[in-house]
Amino acid sequence: MLTLFYSPGACSLASHIALEEIGEPYEPRQTLLTEGAHKTPEYLKINPRGKVPALDVDGEVITENTAILTYLGKQFPQAKLWPTDPIGEARCISQMAWFSNTPHISQRGMVRPYRFVTEDSMHANVVENAKKTFWDNVNEIEGLFNGKPWLMGDQYTVCDAYGLVFYSWGVRAELPMEELRSFTDFKNRMLKRPAVRRALDREKNPFIRSSD
Fold this sequence. Notes:
Blueprint: E1 2-6, H1 13-22, E2 26-30, H2 41-46, E3 54-57, E4 60-63, H3 65-75, H4 86-101, H5 103-111, H6 123-145, H7 158-172, H8 181-191, H9 194-203
Helix pairs in contact: 1-3, 1-7, 1-9, 4-7, 5-6, 6-7, 7-8
């Protein structure tokens, strides 16, 4: 049995989408970060780091989107969410690793500046700089498409589920995401996928809307 611990608006949207795509039964368990559910003793037994997503696979827990998405892509090949050649696999892992260690960190600076500096007077500066860096990051994502429909080329993969997270966060930060034409076209293609719609609807995501 698969159980996903997620919080609406968080990066766990990526794993949420992937689980909807593979079509296997799973239990979605909302773990609201805004209410501190990730810090409860019950959840810390699942993920001692107190983060989402976490995926329980028959009692074995996998954390971090990069690991969860890799597992889902490889474990359920019938969904065709994972490259079949070694170079493609490496590129997919590399892209997800960059997502987690670059734009994700920029977004954290925008919403949780206290994690970077202890002086309250410096929070505004951290937020401003993080917002500029995040804008640079999503512009880099824009350039990844280069005429391709999906981040890895012609094949839709788990990387695309992860990529949508950053479009959502850009909208939430009130950045002019519509100026990123390729990224916006990608977002609209994603919205045509029933699995993506199901995950967004369950999370009641207000930031991802079609511009068609």
